[in-house]
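I hope you will forgive my troubling you with a question about protein structure. I set the record out below, with my sincere thanks for your time.
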Amino acid sequence: MFFHSLSSLLIFLPTFFLIYPFLKKYSLNFSKIFLLIFSLVFYGFDVPWFVIPLIISASSDFFISRYLIDKKNKFSEYRKIILVISFCTNLSLLVIFKYHYLISSTFFRDNQLLFLSNLNNILPVGISFYTFQTLSFTIDSFRGKIKKIPRFIDYLLYICYFPQLVAGPILRFSNFFDNNSSLLLNKNLPKMNYGFYRICYGLFIKLCLADELSRLNDIAFDSDYSLLGIVDCWTMAFGFGLQIYFDFSAYSHLAVGISNLIGIDIPENFNFPYNSKSATEFWKRWHISLSSWVSDYLYMFINNNFTQSFFGAIPLLITWIIMGLWHGASWRFAMWGLMNGILVLIHRLYKSIVSKSNNKVMENIYCFITLSSIMSTWIYFRSSSWDQANNLFIKLFKFDGLYFSFRENYYLFVFLFLITSLTFGEVNEYIKIKNTSHRKILNIIFSSFALAFSIIFINRQASFIYFQF
């Protein structure tokens, strides 16, 4: 179920917020059970059996983690075997539901694993997100960072928590529990005003920006790409780059807002990434929970087991290829990941120059280079075939005249949305620095406009892009 659907906004969420606060005052245990059941119903409402792999992943990692915590003094090699069992369980679920076609089409002649032939178009929503979340809990248990196993129902609630279940942010143990493995949910008070503001912003960004760009981008990417010129291709790259940013950040706004209404302040996932001066900075501001997860668990492991020659290029690029494949079961996503890894590697080579620059003109140049290079990689993310991706990417750097193949509103919308996004990024930094006392008034004004426009566009909704991951 989508947060921005009419059934969610008018039935499910109002019902939840009428019942949950009352139960929490009456009994914390009843409120936890209700929140867990609601989360599972919300997640499995459209396809109920999606709950099965979720429960398998969560349950297996709970019992493995409990063993690792209880047997922390056990022979280390034996504990490593138990940890590997967790990896195999979760990776098996990903292979079965997400990567089987990619594997079979790459390594088998018949392009299909017979026993998985009926699963081509069935991908449990958010499986990549909750897999990373359960794995982080197991790895932290192995490393000794979690001293006490939570109650099973509390752990299930941590994994199945509906505001962030299908598209993040990817939560860590410390985001949901205190040092005694007790739920923070039981101790924190809801932030009603702040939560409402964030929900309004999320609805506006999703319905009025992301979904409108989606319709225009679909027309562009479905056109005959052999007839397109350099202006068309750059507009498509920027158009989809803005669409996926608006779409994903909108979900994060909604997740943070709803969670604050419940009483848990989950971490931010975006911080105006297109205002970055380097690829490294971009990935510290884009999908922050995923970037930090990859850095702490995946890159750290690969970095410790491969050569560090040439600025650590090999572990870096391997990590980025895996990160690309995490986003989608296609080698085009691997190419997208590799390209971003190369951009980060390039920044490693000249970061000393960038860090020393206090010249505003040079900072703007770095921002422009970073923005253009990041946007160009989205071509491989959005294209439906290798031929389309390669042709569009080559045409980004092939000047063959200034002509326009699409309606004028496409170019205008992309330009206006880009300028608006960059401007809000600068304004946000200014507000942080000044710590303005007018923030509350601005939130009331902006959220009112956001809600009004969202109501106008409510019937033109589309699903979130990251639901497919």
